[in-house]
Amino acid sequence: MPQRSWHRPDLCQGARGERLIRARRYSPTPNRSSFQLLEQRSNLLRSPVFTLTALEIPIIAAPMAGGASTPNLACAVSEAGGLGFLAGGYKTPEALAEQIVDVQQRTDHAFGVNLFIPQPPLTDRAAVETYRDALGREYSAATFGEIADADDDWFAEKVAVVIEHRVPVLSFTFGLPPRDAAERMHTAGSFLIATVTSVAEALQAVDRGVDALCVQGPESGGHRATFTTSDEPGTLALGELLIAIREVVTLPLIAAGGIHSGGQIASLLANGAAAVQLGTAFLRTDESGANPAHQSALLDPRFTETVITRAFSGRPARGLSNAFITAHDASAPHEYPQVHHLTKGLRADAARRGDPHGLALWAGTGFREASTGPAAAVLLGLWIDARAAVSS
Ligand SMILES: Cc1cc2nc3c(=O)[nH]c(=O)nc-3n(C[C@H](O)[C@H](O)[C@H](O)COP(=O)(O)O)c2cc1C
């Protein structure tokens, strides 16, 4: 297996050294701690293994399954000094491998891949059938496939893909990777990030031996990462959740959820986050693959708020409140991914018609601030504002 050049300290140091100088220039009045941070980072650049402190800009473009994350977006963010991500969820292992190779051919910078942890088998088939029948009466032209007892999203095959391609950073949602898989991914040189939504989940993740935690607050767009589908996600705001987890965990923490400004980024970094992860902020960028109707809805005055719903997938997820959620939120069964598969055809049909009321318009609470333009400009703009907030 040829080694990727990001593993090679010589190349890595050269390219990263230049970029550090550039990042330094963005700070209007760099203070002592920002120089110490840069110093720490440049020391760590000699290490062959990825670390969060080696990022020039501690901003991660969140993995966003369903089309929003693209190789273009991952490359743009990683090349600009942040950490770009590919979303492994819902893709076939072959499609994921293609995207990984695409990114590796275009950048020597580290990037991440996110995988969905398999869920236990269906427990309440009758509830899913009742939901299907209700949807069938409303959407008479719709056809629904078989309701599978289980669907592991090809987890084992995708683990084999990321190991084969030596992906620098791997993150997980909806649970923790099994111990043996985590060990194999570690042996392949990957940096492992578990997404957690509570102190209890954080402690379990530490026990599993991951390298960092992504602390996902209730403001987050898309699915909550709770370890079980039945759990109602916590409501402790991101800042408080970060501090609560910081008190019991020494691993590096990544803060995620509703982040849309430099001031928020500066405050989360000051409160113990090693990096921040933003999804919604990148949804309208040039490199985003989000459906155009989804992108437009973020600015559409008809969509005024986000809500957490199980209507589209059976799992709690935050999105813009629309007609589908209003009609079906109360009756959606707590079964994932069966409900996700059930509504897939309806969502695809809404996408074809450009109807935002039938789409899962996943978005965090900061949705109105999502900017257009190149992802690199969005990333650098946020970082400049964060640096300015520190020194003001
Ligand atoms: C459209 C969309 C899709 C998402 N898909 C995933 C995913 O596949 N895996 C994952 O771990 N998180 C996913 N998330 C959640 C993000 O990782 C992150 O927690 C969230 O975007 C942070 O909140 P923000 O959107 O307010 O920035 C998704 C978020 C959005 C908005």
Automatic annotation (TrEMBL):
GO terms for molecular function: monooxygenase activity. It catalyses: 3 propionate 3-nitronate + 3 O2 + H2O = 3 3-oxopropanoate + 2 nitrate + nitrite + H2O2 + 3 H(+). Its cofactor is FMN. SMART domains: IMPDH. The keyword Transferase does not apply. Keywords: Detoxification, Flavoprotein, FMN, Monooxygenase, Oxidoreductase. It comes from the Bacteria. Belongs to the nitronate monooxygenase family. NMO class I subfamily. This is Propionate 3-nitronate monooxygenase. It comes from Cryobacterium flavum.
